[in-house]
Give the backbone structure.
Amino acid sequence: MKLKLRVWRQKNNQAKGGFEVYNVEADEHMSFLEMMDVLNEELISKKKEPVAFEHDCREGICGTCNMVIDGRPHGPQKGTTVCQLHMRHYKDGDTITIEPWRVSSFPLIKDLVVDRSAYDRIIQAGGYISVNTGQAPDGNAIPIDKEVSSEAFDAATCIGCGACAAACPNGSAMLFTAAKVAHLGKLPQGKVEHKKRVQKMVGQMDKEGFGFCSNVGACEVECPKEISTENIAMLNRSYLGSMLSTND
Amino acid sequence: MSLKNNIPKGPLAEKWTNYKSKMDLVAPNNKRRIEVIVVGTGLAGASAAATLGELGYKVKAYTFHDSPRRAHSIAAQGGINAAKNYQNDGDSIWRLFYDTIKGGDYRSREANVHRLAEVSTDIIDQCVAQGVPFAREYGGLLHNRSFGGVQVSRTFYARGQTGQQLLIGAYQALSRQIANGNVTMYNRHEMLDVVKIDGKARGIITRNLLNGKIESHAAHCVVLATGGYGNVFYLSTNAMGSNVTAAWRAVKRGAYMANPCYTQIHPTCIPVSGEYQSKLTLMSESLRNDGRVWVPKSVKDAQAIQRGEKTGLDIKEEDRDYYLERRYPAFGNLVPRDVASRAAKVACDEGKGVSKTGLAVFLDFASAIQRYGKSAALSQGISDPDAGTVLKLGEKVVEEKYGNLFQMYEKITGENPYKFPMKIYPAVHYTMGGLWVDYNLQTNIPGLFALGEANFSDHGANRLGASALMQGLADGYFVIPYTIGTFLSHEIRTPMISNETPEFKAAEKEVKERIQRLANSQGNQTVESFHRRLGKIMWEYCGMSRNEEGLKKGRQMIRELRKEFYSDVYVPGSDTEYNPELEKAARVADFLEMGEVMMLDALNRNESCGGHFREEFQSQEGEAQRNDADYTYVAAWEWDDENPILHKEDLEFENVELKTRSYK
């Protein structure tokens, strides 16, 4: 199939960016990123500069790839990262617009590459259980309800890709933060530090300049792991609770 | 130079405990004055950096990724082994040890493997405490499943995303130490050299991938946890960025590369679909708990499927060859990976492949769906369920167990695996070989350690499923925090190492020249095209089966390709900016040398064992034939531009009797 790509090109954070148009010949069995590889191979063989984009595992789990495709983070397919999106969802003659995540807390590096280290700093603020190596009791010492464990797992599947913030009109990182708070806060091991964790992570999120959550719900729709906004409700309750109570 | 493995004396089961009790320690006040560099933030690197930070060392951690959470450990699906015996099915430390030694085809070190089995139980405890949401039973206790090559259920898992959950656990522990100031994290820094001072590893040279700046980082010692070299094959289940550069740079500074020919070809991957393909996707081994592997009995049926005239559903039960169940009744579909992969190759070589290319076999869940459907119906009180109900309930159980894998399969192939049997084919997945290390995980360069897939030590010639995660975390959480003391306890009087010594300056200069040479390459061929060609040579001559003639030819072809690379590669952009093509060029350059050592090692090893199958050495039934008299050793290679030099470490088996591995 023949496709027309409108790709955002920007040399660096200071330079002015803009769309460039490329024609590319793709096969329906290709993944979206393999189609981008074909484009880049062509650009390189013409001694032009390839499009910079990030990717690594190409199986939907590392969270590295990030592109806004026709206005949607990770493209049109539900619950799918760009690397798992395949060209059989497109047809001959389509025009596809490809842009970077546009979130002020994710500064642009080059073309489609942005800096998402703000998410690392939110985790560093408290997204963990404080247990040193060797301090753990036996794995079966604390039975955990299968359902509870499963809910914690659903939240823990976050891949830290940043699609939630990219989808949000306010550029909010609430779903990301809430997923970690819910993952750890639902488990008995994580309950001990829950209130402190909520305060610290929310504090860091604000410090990074992410916007406020206004319950738009775009984050859940675009999340490649389909993480639920129910986690945000839990975060809000916990945050409020932690402000009102004095004991940790 | 002789290789001293430093295995402690005494009975096998007591070695580690006694050694730990008596080893030299570094006191807390001294730890604060000692710096450790950890390169790589996968399971081994992140767990090591976090634990060393907790202990009070000053740690500097490096990754070429934008975040430590991206390391490829994240993609491991199936699970992690531990000798907990929670299932009361006869598991023990000895059994895990024995299974691993046997699974590795008697080419690993007894003492290392036993230690691995011993600490395996602590890993599960640690991960649970960190909040890893392992699968549980209704009673709230941890659930287990089976993996290949074993007859107990000792694999802990978190759906099909165990690696992700374990890595997030280690990443969170690391993040806590970063926040505490015990670990300084360097994202987007690629290690391009090791710096030795007076023979000891004292630092690394990195390239800042955002601006191309070449930097010197000094420490009292260096720990490499930089993963395996599977991407030398171009197509593999590794992430696109996985590379051998850190380990290879250590080799160029004198470290030895051990058993490089031991590569694991994983039997259940989604088959190659076209020339443009950039990577292969694994379908977890856990699927073989319930999936049955088969091809049509007749070549005619297979050809009809290849032409698209028939599907698997059109082949009657009696016309199917469940060849693993037939050839290996004791283990059936759960034979180890090397055995399953070779059997798939044999079936396809006979013309019985089931895809357009003829390079695929079926992995079929129909009977599992029936079995689970019936039992689910019974448990719901439906004593005489109709076929539709059984199918519906059965599919639901299978979805609960493998849902994300089935979804991934459908996304990639566009085919529904609940309706049609999956098509799978072997692909390069893991490398058992790696930097030579002693019992302390120290390479032959004092002060340079290697952990996880980057070292060679525990899996012999074939790794069992769910053991990579176990080894990565064992090395990082429970081994290196102790054994690093054997080196550092002699360094407590060494002041902070300066990064401005002549050794650092010289190494920086060399790295700059190497990078500039690549950046200024104005040839006509892309980096990718060289990598693809290298991969084809490796797969053809050093893949699932090898022979003397092919290996000699392959080696020569790699040498020629290397020459061509330096004379005709084209690298766009400059070396002072964000330039992924330049990063790739430097990695491919190193693969072009690594590939040659793999060929050499495979050529040297005149036997078949585990993942290394030499066509000249097989039984009449086509099983691998070891040569214990001549090859019960670790082959450790010292690099030389013309002729790499072989060093041998004899493997001594005091507790296990060497037998022909049988899964029949």
